[in-house]
Amino acid sequence: MRYKFNIKTMNNYPNFNHESSYKMHEVEELQMAAITPSIISQPESIDRLRHQRMLDALTTKLIPIFPEASWLTIGDGRCGSDSIYLKYAGAKHIHTSSITDLSFKTAQQNGWIDTYSAENAENLSFNDNSFDFVLCKESYHHFPRPAIGFYEMLRVSRIGVVLIEPNLAGFSPLKFMKTIFKKITSRSVFSEYEPSGNYIFRLDPKQLYHMARAMNLPAMATAFHNDFYHPRLFKSAVRTRLETIIFKIGIGIQNSLCFLRLLAPGGVSCVVFKKSLTDIEINQMKRSGINVTALIRNPYIYC
Average pLDDT, whole number, for the chain? Predict the structure, then answer.
């Protein structure tokens, strides 16, 4: 039997209320607080390699182009692992945030991160244009109301917002089979919903493009990547020879199928620019392999 929920129902039903959703994610992050990020504890692990690949697809390429930029991370759990990656890549001014800051004190004492705070993505405590870039990596799909979080990130950014998420866009003949395979291997019939009640909001760059157009923003850039992970295969964080081979084969097969247009990439990085880019910045991005798309501006308010 199917149940239909409207906004009023969602607000009255505890499992679908956005406040209870954030509470559940806060509990989950508290449970993860004691886990040291693999970039510190096991730099040769599959886990470190996976997250490095996600960030290197687009995000870290922005750092040498904007060397003095300030960064805010959103939903940066496990001692601020995203901030640590940015710092290793050369970013100089990074503020770490997540729904809870329990693990950040230890990370700061160890010198892994600089400043931090506990932040709700729907109601950030910062003033407008407080940071040059806002990075939200693999957290956007956990938001109960993603659009509100996106607008908040745009509000506090000066140059742009970077999102790294599972990719929803693109039809491919094997996409349905890949979905079925994941459901079977994970043994989950609720793969589109989290226990908190959130719908898992996978990112479609086309939807983001239309949101940016509606806000009359100047440009955006997109990069795709594939990932290969299964908890049973990578229970140990240590990268053994066999795990490395399996990981590379899994990535290679997906890349080949994407090249043949039989499969859509599994992950996407998008940066929506809030400020107009200079010709020098655009040329630097192109040389770095970043494909920048200028957005058509509103002719009634843009001259």
Answer: 84
Task: Say yes or no to pLDDT of 226 above 70.
Answer: yes
Q: How far is CA 112 from CA 45, 78, 80, 164, 283, in A?
A: 18, 11, 8, 22, 33
Task: Locate 297 and state its tokens.
Answer: 């501006």
The CATH number for 7-294, chosen from 3.40.50.2000, 3.60.20.20, 3.90.1150.10, 3.40.50.150, is 3.40.50.150
Instruction: List pLDDT tens digits, range 13-38.
Output: 444 456 666 666 666 666 666 678 88
Phi, psi of 150 (to 5 degrees): -65, -45
**What is the distance in angstroms between the CA of the first residue and the CA of the last residue of the chain?**
54
- Per-residue exposure over 225-235, b if at least 16 CB sit within 10 Å of its own CB, e if not: bbbbeeeeebe
Per DSSP, the residues of 146-184 read HHHHHHHHHHHEEEEEEEEEEB-----TTHHHHHHHHHH
**Contact status, residue 57 vs residue 102, Cβ threshold 8 Å:** no
Q: Are strands 131-137 and 70-74 parallel, antiparallel or unpaired?
A: parallel
Of 270, 246, 245, 265, give the one whose Cα is nearest residue 255. 265
